[in-house]
Amino acid sequence: xxxxxxxxxxxxxxxxxxxxxxxxxxxxxxxxxxxxxxxxxxxxxxxxxxxxxxxxxxxxxxxxxxxxxxxxxxxxxxxxxxxxxxxxxxxxxxxxxxxxxxxxxxxxxxxxxxxxxxxxxxxxxxxxxxxxxxxxxxxxxxxxxxxxxxxxxxxxxxxxxxxxxxxxxxxxx
Length: 173
Description:
- By secondary structure, the chain is mainly beta.
- The chain has a single domain (2-34, 44-167), classed as Sandwich (Jelly Rolls), CATH 2.60.120.10.
- It has one helix at 2-19; strands spanning 51-57, 60-64, 68-72, 76-85, 88-89, 93-94, 99-105, 107-114, 118-121, 130-133, 138-144, 149-158, 166-167.
- The strands form 4 sheets. It has a 5-stranded antiparallel beta sheet, covered by helices on one side. It has a 4-stranded antiparallel beta sheet with strand order 5-11-8-9, with no helix packed on it. It has a two-stranded antiparallel ribbon with strand order 2-3.
- The chain is globular.
């Protein structure tokens, strides 16, 4: 049992390395140019260009008692993206698996819809904030202000080779 847990953990840890060689050829969002102040050396400028890396992972179960469990019973993709969203409202979408989102730049909130709650909005999130979006959850992003939002997103349980984002009809919010 202990060997199986180590094997599972080693597999999941190795995904980060595998993702480096699996750049998705899908069309990336529009990039945001980030200019460094004149006194900053060019080598110190961090690129905020969009990217997508994805890799398939065999079924796994992470159990860190007492308060964390994550499991996939089928082979699925794990996707790491840097997304750049322009100011204003985005389209209504869902994602097939859960997503962890870290805000690098800009301000963003989600407009969400569920049959139970109807239309709701999240708080505005800015640089350094982290939030979670459940899989199959209907939502749209709203980039607040005039600066594009740059997000680092990790998506789990995506069907192997499947769509990351699925457009949905406007629920009337």
